[in-house]
Amino acid sequence: MASQTQTPAGGTLDPVTFEVLKNSFVTLVDEMAEQILRTCHSFVIYARDFSCALCDAEGNTIMQGSQDIAVHVGTLHLKAKAVLEDFAGDIHEGDVFAVNDPYRGGTHFSDVSIVRPIFVDGELIAMAQANGHWADMGGGTPGSFDVSATDHFGEGVRIPPVRIVDRGVVRHDVIGLVAHNTRAPGDIVGDCHAQVEATRIAEQEVFRLIDKYGTATVTTAFAEVQDYVERLTRARIAELPDGVWETEDHVDADPARGEGLVAIRVKMTIDGDEIRYDLSGSDPAIASFLNSGAGVAFSGAIASAKTFLPEIPLNSGFYRAIKVDVGPEGTVVNAGWPNAVTGCVSGAYEKIMNAGFELWSQLLPERAMACCFNLEYLLIGGRDGRIDERPYFMWYDWMAGGWGGRNGKDGQNATSPVFGVGLAVQPLEGQERLTPVLTTVHEIIPDSGGPGLHRGGCGVRKGGELTAVESSVMSYCCDRSRSVAWGIAGGLPSLPHGVWLNRGTARERFLGANFSGVAVGPGDRFERPSAGGGGYGDPLERDPAEVLEDVIDGYVTVARAARDYGVVVEEVDAEICDFRVDEQATAALRERQRAERPGWLDEDPEQVAARYRNGELDVLDLVRHHGVILDWGTGELLPRTTEQYRALLRRRSAAHWADAA
């Protein structure tokens, strides 16, 4: 039977018009992104640390673009609603607003949204939003990532919804007030205007669509694309079994409470055609900036679901079918004002995502994926001695890393973080031109992928040297130095994060995976890894031919092939990549490891730590086989963390080995 076509006033568009407008909205948002890329001032935004969206008159997301960042998209509707709430009855044609408030649904202070209401014939019909990461928002350290901050007053400028364009007149005083409380006011002003112009492009495109289809048709499409996504989402959920699933992931520690992992607990309930996430069981907020606000926690849960339902577009219709209870204020996932939250994307956010991945891997095992590497930022700021005026510089860097091993496939090597796969690695040449920091190494790390039947993707090592720096400091926002990226279904973990300064010299220091304001000077050298992904499945079940191929490709060393996979590889001629598997020795080694490995997790942690300190064991032996976590700088055992980590390793890995029984 042919479908009946109704008028827009009847609430249903004909299928062709609907499809054209749905895709036009995606194109509109992508055009906003193109405008930002062509006119932004900062290197951070040029590397695509930004996102855009089109919202309806109530602030609900109509559509995102094709390369937007997950954590941004899940919060943009909340920022739009904050503008509507604060300026109810006082929003006019030609107005533009700015907001970055993480306690009103934003992410962190660096992510500043520019919001433009769109009017037709005096009626508000939509809102265009361009969100960008501004490289500095003030606070105690260059780049505004201060791990020592315990409240927002040490983190930077908080912008509640504020009018920056008043009926078409730019409020340079307001923009200047914000910009001149940062270390890079020129970049801030330039990026702000680039985002303002991006929202104008969106407004222009909405007007073009209205000229062609009429206001009633376009506004009906705004509603119907959300209804469409809701129907798709509910239909897909209805195919899944009802039930309750629970798991947890962890932040490394709370500085106020000593060592011990901080739990982020995720409970997921499926009831008919609806999913409910419950994060209320998470631990209290910590005395560091790795907490998240409610908007980020909501976004993390949504992003984990969207990762496993990639065929469904994302707008507010998705949120109608997938509900998120972030729990009361005061927890690590809903810290509330004035708790510090700037490091949320490296802290609570990606832990919520990866915990969600573990739950969805049980629901959709064909798409199962182990834990992915943690988003990290390294920042060096100070004065640039290459230039007579000694201007402020900020070397602001993030790395690619490994995604988790998957059902039937290895994890992806050197990929953007799950925080946002549209995020680009910054070009080294551009960094070196703009800052007095020279990159000395940038390479894939062998053995960084978590061992498994399907190996985790490999991470990356990046190092550099400071040249003509003056009055400079280094800060690092990361995690998983202790809550190492984990495997599932028997797979093993990756490796710990952390920064080394002047490694291999008399001035060697391990700075860890979270620090700020460390003084650095000319000639100082640094390096840090991005972890690989966790492994999927028992590594002793991996085909020796695949392990051999990994050795040839440089993803696994000969030594770790034996230690992690029980595969004995002989080096015939490394120059021409000639390696061979000793099948008889491999069979014997695997048999011995199957018998011995259950006992490794029961060995005395102090004795294991002593064997590490005397060189008998290395870091990978500890985190993968013995489940022992140390302070990697001093070699000191962390007993409480080790106890927690071992319990997780038993559940995710050892319990799935055939010899576990």
Automatic annotation (TrEMBL):
It holds the Pfam family Hydantoinase_B. Residues 14-539 form the Hydantoinase B/oxoprolinase domain. InterPro entries: Hydantoinase_B, Oxoprolinase-like. The keyword Hydrolase applies. One of its GO terms (molecular function) is N-methylhydantoinase (ATP-hydrolyzing) activity. Its EC number is 3.5.2.14. The keyword Signal does not apply. One of its GO terms (biological process) is glutathione metabolic process. Coiled coil: none annotated. Keywords: Hydrolase. GO terms for cellular component: cytosol. This is N-methylhydantoinase B.
